[in-house]
């Protein structure tokens, strides 16, 4: 079949000990893409050696390095093979330097299916098989396999086989288990995109790249063409007008980029529940991604309300699940259950996923002493910042107005401190412990009490003086631990004892008897 595999070519996985599982190879159509990508990655080295090394013997270094890179990529596509046995997933690759890797099937936690533009050109996909343990580098961890690339039907077959532990019949195209729609993106939710401020990162990266490019070439952009005329106009304009125009222009650019990022990331977003207890997430426009979360590994949910999004009544929902890859932001790790959407809809999805309405449960307020701590910390931060600016002004390194302007932030700091206190709360709702904290990034977390690995009672020096404690709940999922911050000492110990019944009882009884 010219190296192209389809769903019909794969028989059911044989039982252990009855037959040898067959080996499969990556789709050969990747050979049309991989060399082009390798040459594109080597362009800086290739151009640098050809231009700087013109007339010298070492100008061929770039060509040799590029040829080696292309050869390694082609050999990877030709020699990679994998198979799924009754106990593990095996992967072999390499021509000169051979590599072998095996992942036990009972340790597999996630099977992510991603289709980038290079894959979609030939209806292919990359399958990432993970165990929930990851290295801190950029590449995949030792317990993670990446099959790049296989057909869409084969990717679906592997996901069903490895997550649902069900053999896949070799008849027709695999459709996967039946599923029920839990949530889908609504086009009206685009109005929340500008308030995610995701476009700021794009603007910052673009400005940084342009500045570095201009600096290296010793160019002054304001000396050329339209930029020179624009600079002259702004030089003649009042300062307040320049600042206002720049702020409005930046706001428009960030908003447009944020809307574009929302469309690219969450186009056709669908959250479904499959028979057998699996949540399936699909999203993406140019690059599509498919993530599955076994509900037996779901430990809770996290409702995030950044301040700009909260001001317009929006939020997003993230899964707290064992085995999900943690990245910069939960959506990078694949645990996003709902993109920025109306808060009410987020609460509905959280209740549907957990089977209990925990997001809207009334929370217990924390004592007024927690308010004092928040106001003190907020005001102290502004005063220290103003003091540092004052010292710089005193040694004539800065003018006097920066430290005076910093003092204007004091009322804002008081408001932030008050809002942080007003946000604090906790509750026990059925099987879940619910805790809320934060102001600029308010977060409400509900975690399974029976899945906690312990309870930690933390008290700092200032907390002891105020009669407050912080309850830390370690859990093998999400961030690894969540906090109930600045709760009254006696109430916090009762909460800890009720969260994991019997764990602290011996210590509490011993203290009472003493």
How does this structure look, described?
The protein has 514 residues and is α+β, with helices and mostly antiparallel strands. The chain folds into 3 domains: 7-173, no CATH class; 177-354, no CATH class; 368-508, PH-domain like (Roll), CATH 2.30.29. It has 16 helices and 20 strands. The protein has helices at residues 34-41, 43-52, 61-79, 117-120, 152-164, 199-216, 225-236, 239-266, 307-311, 343-354, 368-394, 401-407, 410-423, 461-466, 489-499, 505-513; strands spanning 24-25, 81-84, 88-93, 99-104, 110-115, 124-130, 145-151, 179-184, 270-274, 278-283, 288-294, 298-306, 314-321, 336-342, 425-429, 432-437, 441-448, 456-458, 468-474, 481-488. It has a 7-stranded antiparallel beta sheet, sandwiched between helices. The chain has a 6-stranded antiparallel beta sheet with strand order 14-13-12-17-16-15, with helices on both faces. Helix 1 packs antiparallel against helix 3 (61-79). The model is unreliable at 1-19, 134-140, 168-174, 327-331 and 510-514 (pLDDT under 50).
In short:
The chain is of the alpha+beta class and 514 residues long. The protein folds into three domains: 7-173, no CATH class; 177-354, no CATH class; 368-508, PH-domain like.
Distance N to C terminus: 80 Å
Number of helices: 16
Strand order of the largest sheet: 7-6-5-11-10-9-8
Strand content: 15-25%
Specify the structural class: alpha+beta
């Amino acid at each position: 079949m010219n190296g192209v595999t389809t769903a019909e070519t794969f028989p059911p996985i044989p039982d252990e000990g009855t037959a040898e599982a067959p080996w499969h190879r990556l789709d050969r159509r990747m050979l049309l893409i991989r060399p082009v990508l390798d040459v594109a990655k080597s362009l800086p080295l290739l151009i640098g050696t050809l231009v700087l090394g013109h007339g010298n013997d070492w100008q061929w270094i770039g060509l040799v390095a590029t040829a080696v890179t292309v050869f390694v990529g082609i050999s990877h596509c030709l020699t990679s093979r994998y198979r799924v046995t009754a106990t593990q997933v095996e992967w072999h690759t390499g021509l000169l330097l051979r590599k072998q890797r095996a992942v036990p099937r009972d340790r597999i936690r996630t099977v992510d299916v991603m289709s980038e533009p290079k894959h979609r050109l030939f209806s292919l996909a990359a399958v990432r098989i993970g165990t929930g343990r990851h290295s801190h580098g950029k590449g995949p961890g030792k317990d993670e396999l990446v099959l790049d690339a296989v057909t869409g039907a084969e990717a679906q077959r592997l996901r069903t086989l490895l997550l649902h532990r069900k053999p896949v019949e070799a008849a027709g195209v695999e459709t996967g288990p039946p599923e029920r729609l839990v949530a889908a993106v609504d086009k009206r939710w685009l109005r929340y995109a500008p308030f995610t401020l995701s476009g700021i990162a794009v603007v910052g990266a673009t400005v940084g790249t342009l500045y570095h490019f201009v600096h290296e070439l010793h160019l002054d952009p304001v000396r050329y063409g339209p930029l020179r005329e624009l600079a002259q106009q702004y030089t003649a304009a009042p300062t307040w007008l320049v600042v206002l125009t720049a702020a409005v222009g930046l706001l428009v650019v960030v908003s447009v980029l944020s809307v574009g990022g929302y469309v690219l990331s969450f186009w056709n977003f669908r959250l479904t529940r499959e028979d057998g207890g699996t949540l399936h997430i699909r999203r993406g426009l140019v690059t599509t991604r498919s993530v599955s979360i076994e509900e037996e590994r779901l430990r809770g949910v996290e409702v995030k309300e950044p301040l700009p999004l909260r001001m317009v009544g929006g939020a997003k929902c993230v899964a707290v699940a064992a085995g999900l890859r943690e990245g910069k932001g939960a959506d990078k790790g694949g645990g996003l259950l709902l993109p920025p959407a109306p808060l009410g809809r987020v609460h509905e999805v959280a209740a549907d996923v957990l089977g209990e309405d925990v997001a809207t449960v009334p929370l217990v307020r924390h004592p007024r002493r927690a308010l004092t701590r928040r106001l003190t910390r907020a005001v102290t931060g502004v005063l220290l910042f103003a003091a540092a600016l004052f010292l710089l002004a005193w040694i004539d390194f800065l003018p006097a107005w920066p430290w005076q302007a910093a003092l204007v932030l004091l009322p804002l700091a008081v408001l932030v401190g008050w809002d942080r206190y007003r946000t604090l709360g906790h509750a026990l709702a059925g099987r879940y412990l619910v805790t809320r904290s934060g102001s600029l990034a308010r977060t409400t977390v509900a975690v399974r009490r029976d899945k906690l690995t312990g309870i930690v009672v933390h008290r700092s020096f200032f907390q002891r003086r105020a009669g407050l404690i912080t309850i830390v709940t370690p859990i093998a999922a999400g961030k690894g631990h969540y906090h109930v911050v600045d709760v009254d000492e006696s109430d916090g110990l009762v909460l800890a004892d009720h969260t994991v019944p019997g764990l602290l009882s011996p210590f509490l009884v011993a203290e009472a008897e003493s």
